[in-house]
Amino acid sequence: MGLKSRAVMVAGAGIAGIQAALDLAEMGIKVHLVEESPSIGGRMPQLDKTFPTNDCSMCILSPKMSESVRHPNIKIYTTTTIDSVSGIPGDFTAKIVERAKYIDQEKCVSCGLCEEKCPVKVDDIFDMKLRKRGAVSRYFLQSIPSEYTIDPHNCLYLNKGVCRLCEKVCPAGAINFDDKDKIFEINVGAIILSGGIDSYDPIHLGNFGYRRYKNVVTSLEFERMLSASGPLGGHVVRPGDHKEPKSLAFIQCVGSRDENINHNYCSSACCMFAIKEAMIAKEHIKDLESTVFYMDIRAFGKDFDKYYEKSKDKYGVEYIKSKVSDISEDDDGNLILKYVYENGDISHKQFDMAVLAVGLQPRKSIVNLSKSLNFKLNEFGFCRSDTNLPLATTREGIFVCGAMNGPKDIPESVTAASGAAAETLKFLRLERQDISAEKDAVQEKDVAGDRPRIGAFVCHCGINIAGVVDVKDVAEHARHLPNVEYAEDLIYACSQDCMNTIKERIKEYDLNRIVVAACTPRTHEPLFRETITEAGLNPYLFEMANIRDQCSWAHMNEPWLATVKSKDLMSMGVAKARELKPLKRLPIEINPKAMVIGGGLAGMTTAISLAEAGHEVYLIEKENELGGNLRNIFFDFDSDPQVLLADTISKAESNELIHIYKNAIIKKIDGFVGNFSTTVTGNNKNEEISFDHGVVIIATGADEHVTEEYLYGRSDRIVSQVELEDILKTRKFPGTRKPKNVVMIQCVGSREEGKMYCSRVCCTKAVKNAGVLKNILPNVNIYIIYRDIRTYGFREKHYSELRDKGAMFIHYTPENKPIVELVNEKDTDSQVKVTVFDPIVNKNIEIQADMLVLATAIDAKKENIDLVKMLKVSLNTDGMFLEAHVKLRPVDFATDGIFVAGLAHCPKDCDESITQAKAAASRALTFLNKKAILAEGTICEVNDSRCTGCGYCVHICAYNAIELDPEKGTARVNDALCKGCGACVASCRCGALDLRGFTNGQMFGVFDSLEMTNVIDE
Amino acid sequence: MLKATIKKDRNTAVKDIAKFLLDSGKISGVFTLKKFEGASNADYGLITDPALLDFIQPFFPIMPQNAGKTLTKLTKIDKPILVIIRPCEHRAFIEMVKREQGTTDNFIIITYTCGGVIPLKDHAKGLKEGELDKYWTDVQKSINPDTIRDNCRRCEHFYPDNSDILVSVLGSSEDSTDIYINNERTKTILEGFDISLIAGKFDASSLKNIIAERAAEKEKQFKAVDKSGKGLDGLVEIFGKCIGCRGCNSVCPICYCAQCDFASANFDYNKMILEKELDQKGALRLPPDTIFFHIGRMSHIAFSCVGCGQCSDVCPAGIPVGTVFNRAGESVAGEFDFVPGRSADEKIPVTIYKEQEFPELGE
After folding, report:
1. Residue A78: helix, strand or coil by DSSP?
2. How crowded is residue B339: how many other Cβ atoms within 10 Å of its Cβ?
């Protein structure tokens, strides 16, 4: 197939869309990132903290947002929808419509005057209607793009032809009421849908009194209340009377697991966000009581159970297993919850506020989208995808990720996004990219040895800064600082004409260092660096002072102090600039081959993805055949795992780019990103094979837990769920007659002290195997003894089906585990007696079981530790590989060039392993598709004459970028791995380490420049 | 663990061991205190000629330098060296090993139950008639000799179990010497030496009086330098006398930097800084940054302070540097259950990453 296109459209710019776009862009693919709302970011900006690390959602997201807006391969279209897609995979034409914004995005400087003057006040959607905004507004504070837009539905002028106040006050002349919708036709090879989900509107469930009682809110509304940047500034109060609540009720499964509203699925994330909100609320309000009303706590993800336990032990969150039947309100606005326990007992409790854990549901727009794009929806209205092809829609060339094809939390969305990016590649023309030489690059001026000639510029940012800070005074102050040759104030430093002014001044005054006092370097430093590069200066000869966030915003009520502080920041900036040196980014070549460790489903899938993208792969398997754990799985709900296995093996074995080593043991791995070298022994143990590769993917899988509990091993009638699969396949049941009573015990070796994690697949596996058993033996009685049934997502459907078929579910707690005895100790074929307390009938019951099936845990492989030593990566406390960031970098390690997929990361199902395997391939390709990468400019360097080689820095570096040189006995920094965090510099007693661009000399200069005048006293 | 009783005085007993090892070619040299004929002073030496072993004085009660630092320089010699040093010197060496400044591989280390050392200045002035005899009488009585360093008087680590061989000195008789062999490696290297080994472990109960005496002394000395809660004023009270000679730095066995940052150009006061300081304060003590120097050094090394007392000993201004560092260091090290010099396998707290550390201070 002669593929031509090198572009992809990503529709939906939430975290999934952003991740997919970034991965593809890094592979050299042009991405059209299309978003319906006025900003990229999706749901994440609305969240306060994220589980299970309690990281601030916005803090971890915004670097990715900034990166995508700056990336030369990503074009962002906001307020844009897809009209139609025509053509064939590899050559689609997408027609997209960008709604008129009525504000010239080039001119708008986001000063906010227009919204201040706008007479219209409407409910703010982003803040869940807890706040009002103007008809002209910015979507949220950290919106990207940051420019304002006019909402045509509410604008007075656009509807009634009067007003135009914004036009009068706009200092940039950016208002354009003549703006029209724009239609673009873009040619792309493939499409990724990442349109996200909506939350269920509980107005339809009258019993909870949502909207009727002011103090009943949804979890998303509560999220905005908790957020420091939200409408309440993080001070949670009751909407009814603005009093601080002292007790909170969290009600789970509102709009989830509910057949009455065709939501017979689990929303997967609500248990965790309720746990999080219950905990975080307790941090906000002293002595707050948080109570969660739940059916099952579904903390099935990595490290989730530890988080759940922490909420009970450390935070004192209370959990009540019950169903809330209704809520009523007393005269003071307090809420009385009526709830029903498992055994039918009814109870009442009063709370100050209630938070409804609203479920996730498909967006309304998905129906029309599926029609215009011609892909199918599943029975619940989500985008349809298949277990074995979890990222494909029903239309070839169109892929799906995020929650659009089923409820997912953030890391799963991010994983799916990377996976979908890898899937598009088969429809694209791939080329390894060179380090892009700047077109018409200006010759860089050599400033070595020149006296610093500093240019200082102070930005008004309209009134954003100048409304508070006396910018002229700051510029005047700068003018008199040593080495400042020129100082000027600019209305909008980042506007094109002001950028030109800066370039002209550089020439005019022969400036060789530039300081800009304006907003945050996070968004604007790259822009200014680019500008001075165009004027012939090295980009690192630039320094920024953030007088907007730190002065005009932080001290808006003390303008004089804000000015004094701005001057100090300017002095510090100039002091730093005085010491700045030009820095270079050195290229590091990337070997295009990959090594995948582990030939199970995940490893093979990654290898196939990489090979299909044109890369040679060394696939290392320690057993004598491929397949891993999947070899023991014979049943799934909709597909045959053995067919999947055979297909995957044949694809891997028939691809000539994949070199498979079986019975292989890894002896040694040396090197770093782009430049690894590995030695293995293959079939012939004496023969060592060595090869070079650019990346490593760890897909070593996991082991089935071998239990000693519940008399396992003492009778043929006591088997594990994996062993049951084999029995179901061969239909050779233990004992002389077919089983009549079968008992299954869940969480054997999971969720216990020392192994506080959920093995995730066992509930579904039990439900699945019980279903198969019921099909074979329709009269069999099945008893499933469980702690929480965790059939998340669409798996819930199978759980309720099994209940309908008459399987009995009995809840137990770890304090009161079932007791297993053999009916006749001496008889190896003895029946098994299981005694368990049944909370529904409120007494112990005894079951004479013909078979006892134990859902044994998934254990981390002990051999993981060998790889940890060779690759210097980390394991979590359960021995599973620890990714770089549990939320946003789920398949990366902190060390570049190493990735993880499958059970080696944490317990997961087949479809999830496939997704993650493709994600690992995608992340690996962001390196492999480049001929070289550029090292950072701001990296550490070692002064050999001072270094004593004590090794502190080696221990401290999180990126394994430092080692001791055995010859010289001093530390050596690997330019490719150093991220310039500076932790080593702080650790170095001898002062032998320095961070380029932030040297000790520069920093001391900055401190010494401070005036130290105690202005507060004056 | 093995024990042997050698029916000789301790100097001869150790010399015999050294001689045997050197003669049999199992070691390449002996590192310990020696006093050559006619020398006024004992000092450290590395001896390879067996004939010169007659001059070794391993137990002579002075510490010309903390040998832990010296040993790092010898660590690259291939063939083993027998080292006879004090417990605090051994501990200093272990701290250096953790900092990749040496390895224990080629040393056989003998330490002993230590009575303490006489301050260098006192020794240099010349010891009084009978002073040395009095020292040894007190050592035999297992009490603190009057003449020793303050640091030694309060030392808690004077009966170590982490060396290859331990010689019992405190409370021991002059004509019979008990030695303890702490590992297999040492037992092997002593094969062929005329010695009868029995199973036996050093019993510290015989030292309980001096342990109690030194513990009480420690409490007293720590209390005397305790300025907690007094902030900068407290530091001035202690370090205000500092003349900025950096002697403490140069004799400290844990200060291992090739060049001290405080002695580098980074701490030169240029015109701008001088003028600014004078503008703000109206006066400047010179040399500047003497207190900053001690804070810096304290934050860098105090938690690894082995309490040898060299710093106090050399301080011309009489500042109890060692006591302050020891006091500050122990309170930090205690938070991490860290004892400097206990074992080379014990990692320095600053190099260990823990997800949860001091949760009471917030996340």
Report:
1. coil
2. 16
Task: Give A938-996's CATH code, choosing from 3.40.920.10, 3.30.70.20, 3.40.50.740, 1.10.357.10.
Answer: 3.30.70.20
Judge whether residue A1015 has pLDDT over 50: no
> pTM for the full model?
0.83
Asked whether residue B165 falls in the same domain as residue B17, the answer is yes
Number of A to B CB contacts under 8 A, please give it: 57
Number of independent structural domains in chain B: 2
Q: How many Å is the maximal CA-CA distance in chain A?
A: 101
Handedness of CA A42, A46, A51, A55 (dihedral sign): positive
The encoded tokens of residue A692 equal 């070079």
Give residues with Cβ within 8 angstroms of A626, minimum separation 6: A599, A600, A604, A619, A649, A652, A653, A660, A662
Q: Name the band, by pLDDT with cuts 50, 70 and 90, for residue B362.
A: low
Q: Is the pLDDT of residue A156 over 90?
A: yes
Tell me the shortest Cα–Cα distance from B232 to chain A, in angstroms.
19
Fold classified for A1-99+181-196+363-430: FAD/NAD(P)-binding domain (3.50.50)
User: Would you call B99 and A991 a contact, using CB atoms and an 8 Å cutoff?
Assistant: no
Which class in CATH covers the domain with range A705-858? alpha beta
* The predicted structure's pLDDT at residue A786: 97
A784: phi then psi, degrees, rounded to nearest 5: -110, 115
Residues 125-164 of B with CB under 8 A from A: none
Q: Assign A1017 a pLDDT band (cuts: 50, 70, 90).
A: very low
Determine the Cα–Cα distance for residues A647 and A612; give it in Å rounded to an integer: 15
Residue B54 sits in the same domain as residue B186: yes
Same domain, B88 and B152: yes
| Nearest-CB residue to B101 (from A945, A950, A1001) | A950
- Are residues A946 and B272, on separate chains, in Cβ contact within 8 Å? no
Select the residue from B75, B76, B100 to test the A interface by mutation, using most A Cβ atoms within 10 A. B100
Bridge partners of A691, per DSSP, are A678
Please give, rounded to a whole number of angstroms, the shortest distance from the CA of A698 to a CA of chain B: 23
Question: Is A681 touching B (CB cutoff 8 A)?
Answer: no
Q: CB distance from B272 to chain A under 8 Å? A: yes
**Pick from A67, A275, A286, A94: which is nearest to A191 by CA?**
A94
- B363 at the A interface (CB within 8 A)? yes
- Is the sign of the CA dihedral A35, A37, A42, A45 positive or negative? positive
User: Per-residue pLDDT tens for A345-363?
Assistant: 999 999 999 999 999 999 9
For A444, phi and psi rounded to 5 degrees? Answer: -75, 135
Q: Residue A33: what pLDDT?
A: 98
**Residue B205 shares a structural domain with residue B231:** no
Q: Which residue of B has its CA nearest to A283?
A: B362
Q: Which token pair is A878?
A: 């359960």
The string of pLDDT tens digits covering residues A209-266 is 999 999 999 999 999 999 988 899 889 999 999 999 999 999 999 999 999 999 999 9
What are residue A32's DSSP bridge partners? Answer: A9, A75
Taking CB atoms and an 8 Å limit, are B266 and A1001 in contact across chains?
yes
3-state secondary structure of A87: strand
pLDDT confidence of residue A658: 97
What CATH number does the domain located at A199-360 have?
Answer: 3.50.50.60
Which of A39, A47, A43 shows the shortest CA–CA distance to A66? A39
A199-360: same fold as A100-179? no
Domain that holds residue B344: 226-361
Nearest partner of B342 among B354, B330, B324, B328, judged by Cα: B330
Cβ atoms of A481 and A452 within 8 Å: the answer is no
Query: Residue B221: inside a domain, yes or no?
Result: no
* Residue B348 to residue A952, Cβ atoms within 8 A: yes
CB contact under 8 A, B350 and A952: yes
* Nearest residue in chain B measured CA to CA from A947: B258
